[in-house]
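Listing 4. Sequential folding, example run.
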Amino acid sequence: MRSDLTAAIAWRYLISKKTHGAVATISTVSVCAMAVATAAIVCVLSVFNGFRQVIASRLDTLSPDIMVTASEGKVFSGADSLAAAVSDVQGIALATPTLSDNALVICNSQEMPVTVKGVTAAPYAKVTAVRDLIAEGYGDYLDSGRHDGDMTAVPAVVSIGVAARLGIRPGDGMLLFAPRRKGRVNLANPASSFMTDSLSAAGIYRSDQAQFDDDGIILPITTVRRLLQYDDQASAIEIRLSPGAMAEDVAERLRQRLGTGFIIRDRMRQQEMNFRMISIEKWVSFMLLGFILVIAGFNIISSLSMLVLEKEKALSTFTALGLTRRRIGRIFAWESIYVSAAGGVAGIFLGLVLCLIQQHFGIITIGGDPDAAIVPAYPVEVRISDLFATLLPVAAIGLATAFATAAFARSRISRSAECQ
């Protein structure tokens, strides 16, 4: 009953007209500051969620559903037979070995270090969406499935980054150099220390993912194995799941089948570093904006301290009516909670409105060429968990300011008693 009384008095103080206009102004500013800071947190967290969603939506281009790599070393032997065995696991529609390593390409009197990836054309085009990434009219290497013996120059699909840097156009010839893994270095003839082959640009792809677009070249796996002096080795087995299969369940079956000698990763884990960076940036931004909430909390303390001074005569009346110092302090503690709650709720509502507007209308656009951008406007995705996370600092600040304001009110009552 007494708690209801203190809460009712606090509510009356909140909505009543203040004697001094400065108190009302500072109180309004405190609520607005809390609301703006809370809305900023909601918007920033939602934008980071949007970017995470964009990255996740791009994973189905050149990232397979599941990738199997060796736990030790760059390659593993018996890749072809292992891929055939993996294909028998429940939930797997197709498995194909790939071989990746570093090399040097020369074209138009320019040279560039690249990452070559050897694939078997037909299954690789089914495991990934690489066929959809090749620009129209740039060749049919993946569709035709041509191999080394079909033409003098080995057909290659180069990334947009390699094509731009070396000025490669469809049909241009290139020279590929890879250091010999076996044999001794001949100082009298350094060129003999490299395996070489001539390539022809049969296609140019663009995935809008830096790890694939910067320096990638896709070749037949037979060519890459010959250049790197491998037999049946591969650096990964890339897997396409059957419709309706769950990646986590299939990955667990693969772990049981292959043992500890291999690492099995789904699409999310293949991009773990990118997602981790987004998560770190998201919560660092959350902490920085949380400091703004703390500053708003100091404004609440100052405004309610002025309210205590304004109601100092009423404090004596409450004391005469039999209210203890603790009860009177609770009045101003409730006042602080009301102010913090009003600012937090208003901020969340404002943040949701702004996020919905951005999500549907894309008012704030990303700078630069809109045709070259993956998304023209900042992406937004609101999550309920982020809203609860935003309420936590608001609640903590409300409780902290409540204790501080109540303590100040009790101290004023003690001073008034001493003066009397």
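-- end of first protein; second protein begins --
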Amino acid sequence: MSGGAAWWWWRPPAPAPVAPAVPAVAAPAPTRIEIAEATVTQMLQQQPLQDWRIARLQGNAAVLVIEFPGLLSQGQAMNRVAALLEKKGASRDRVLGDAELASLIRASGDNAATFYLGHDYTAEGLARFFSLAQAQGVALAAAELRLRQLLLDTGMLAEGGGGGAPAYRATGPGAVVSFSAVQADDPATTQDESMDERRRASVLRHELSHGDFFTKASYRAHCWRFWRQLDDAERASWRRYLRGLGYDDADEELMVNETQALLMHTPDTRDFNAAALGVTPAQLEALRMRFQLSAP
């Protein structure tokens, strides 16, 4: 496809063969891999997908986009991060072990595939996750270790400086967002694992809006202004709706960020609509017009 050169197929480097001991020398600076940019249209062009597909967002290269072959492979890499950074009912200060994560997912009525349709995190949040996991001795899954290596290889994260500092640090403003390839529902489960083209496109646009929120100060400031201009009842409606989706409604920035993404960047009405929020279609459209009035 025309965007073929824009995607980078990434696999962890093969382990180096064991070599005889040699005198110690200064370690060379780590070599960063370069990830090409892609447009939304290129990202949505379908190809057979057997492995992670990675690009930077054209026009905002601070946003790293991972397309997973399916929802399960996405969940294996991202669900534990979600639990730490934004899921209600999980600790904000402790990375969950495997049994605790499985219990949280079951309590939400989901499975590992349907827990999230897409993910979005800042580089700072990911550095915190991996640092806490290491400090707490949590055994991460292979997909999570692969994600950590990818972030190191691309220069989004760097190892900490020791001396009691966190194990990993963000090298600057940046965000990782993810979505998955098209897939069918698994009839053996009670959850709906289907990801058709319409939902896939909606999820990608939703997640990319989070990337803009994380990396564009002017857009983030606009979203905060809109949130503060809502009246108490309107904010309470959003908070109630997002709490019902399992988000930590005590995290005000999370409320602002999810509100903008759902209101303005989730065109699939199966995943967001006026009735779900408890308003009429006319009221929802009025909210969208208010958001657009002073958008940067």
